[in-house]
Amino acid sequence: MATAKPAQDERRRVPHHLIDVADPRIDFSLADYADLARRAIEGIAARGRVPVVAGGTGLYLRGLLRGVVPAPRRSEALRARLRGMAERYGSPRLHRWLRRLDPGSAARLPPRDVQRIVRALEIAIEGGRSWSERLLAEGTWASGAERFDALKIGLDVEARALAGRLDARVDRFFRDGLAKEVRGLLEEGVPVTANAFKAIGYREVLRAVLSGADPESAREEVRRNTRRYAKRQRTWFRKEPGIVWLDASGDEGALAGEAVRLFRAGGRSRA
Description:
Elements: H1 8-13, H2 30-46, H3 58-66, H4 76-89, H5 91-101, H6 103-108, H7 114-126, H8 131-138, E1 152-156, H9 159-175, H10 178-187, H11 202-211, H12 219-239, E2 243-247, H13 252-265
Parallel strand pairs: 1-2
Helix pairs in contact: 2-3, 4-5, 4-7, 5-7, 9-12, 10-11
């Protein structure tokens, strides 16, 4: 629900890819996404079509275009132990441990960022060398070239209008059954620690359900967190090189036409 998947009629009109590809009980990483997206793009291009990558976060766009530094697969047993330590002793204690094993990663990560601290510790413990050492040896996004000739279009909306759209989006999630979906996932055996429940909307409703509160009480918190997340993403994309910004407050047909014009003006096929 709160993933905002395209409706069935939209999928019938235009082929969509990478929808319903991940089991919510299994962590789905940036590397998993980048690999599946690369395969989809190459398949679409091989058929003589133009792939359009829509939505998503700046992190995932960068992972797709510049690749991901290989890292060891997750160890669920180790991850569970580390998360248990974080719950028992607090994430700052894990952060101090990371500072001993991987000072570079510890310097980049705030002490409260449990998820990334746990991942950095996993790599340092299981991978033989730290994440910082891997970045030094294999390069970072700043030093790598983009893997696809991409026309990057950003849709810009005035802040107050954007906030209104985001609030309406959250209201639609609740109206269409977000709370029912969360309860259904729990009934299917998806653990409360799953990454699927860390997404905005799911995590707030999950807390309400687990505490016995009315899920509706989480609506305003979801709205607030959605607006904050959108602000962070706007900041990220403002720093992303090569984005062409278009005003998305007007007619959708005209906006689509301008995007097509920009693509054709490129003079060559883009992926």
